[in-house]
């Protein structure tokens, strides 16, 4: 098995939570090369926990989450689900992620029985095909000499998702840019035919590039020690079926940054132009006081 395939297998395994009691689940951590827990993993696992308490005929249509404490990469996460309501068409759930006896993250999710309704959407922008663009690994190796030595191993770690930037730039070196970017992404190997798994993997991937959008006008590299950068919250809406192992286009923008926070938005399209999900996230973007 290739390293890339192993990374997808490990992610799928991490999303297969252990049920330890009614409404109580435990998830192991993925290896992302970070010193702290990756937020996308916690979002995906919390959505799994909520989904496993809902009838099979109901799929998630929205989630809203807050990151409260930095997660410990060396400790499994426990997910406690509250079954708020099961109506005729909708079910709502709340999930608390716990480490060391304290909440680190919370999530509210709503599920709906599928039904027909009026439809409209923003059109997908015209962009180059993903096959014509650099792979994520090729992009990262372009500026490997910029990365501090202590971060190189993390930076070169095989990832389960391949991101291909339509207009790639080099963090901290390319200069200020407008706060928008288009990025193709997909799982690096085929994923089993389970729509719930594909939704949870998209939730995982939706946290991987979005926060960098508000950094573009300020020419910030993620390893810049003068900055404190972290996700504060995350919202995700599902609109239509998709596969996470088919190419998806992530159209990202950041309309505003202020008060040491940056707001980021994303629209995720299938390759055939169907808008399948929308994302919003606010991130901390704080300059450290000079000592």
Please describe the topology of this protein.
Elements lengths: L2 H12 L3 E4 L2 E4 L11 H13 L7 E9 L9 E10 L3 E10 L2 E11 L23 H6 L10 H4 L5 E5 L14 E8 L7 H11 L21 E5 L1 E6 L9 E11 L2 E10 L4 E13 L4
Antiparallel strand pairs: 1-2, 2-4, 3-6, 3-10, 4-5, 5-6, 7-8, 8-11, 9-13, 10-13, 11-12, 12-13
Helix pairs in contact: 2-5
Could you walk me through the main structural features you see in this protein, from its secondary elements to its overall organization?
This protein is of the alpha+beta class and about 290 residues long. It has a single domain (about 5-115, about 135-285), classed as Porin. The chain is built from 5 helices and 13 strands. Helix 2 (about 40-50) packs antiparallel against helix 5 (about 195-205). The radius of gyration is 19 Å and the shape is globular.
Features:
single chain; 13-stranded antiparallel sheet; 291 residues; Porin
Q: How does CATH name the architecture? A: Beta Barrel
From the spread of the alpha carbons, the general shape counts as: globular
Q: Which band does the percent of strand residues land in?
A: 35-45%
C-alpha-based Rg, rounded: 19 Å
The CATH superfamily label reads Acyl-CoA thioesterase, double hotdog domain
Distance between the termini: 49 Å
The number of domains = 1
Number of helical stretches of at least 4 residues: 5
**Mean pLDDT over the full residue set:** 92
**Poorly predicted segments:** none
State the name of the first-level CATH class.
Answer: Mainly Beta
By CATH, the topology is: Porin
Residue share in helix? 10-25%
Helix and strand string, N-terminal first?
Answer: HEEHEEEEHHEEHEEEEE
Count every beta strand, where a strand is a DSSP E run of 2 or more residues: 13
Task: Give the biggest beta sheet.
Answer: 13 strands, antiparallel
- Would you tell me the structural class of the helices and strands? alpha+beta
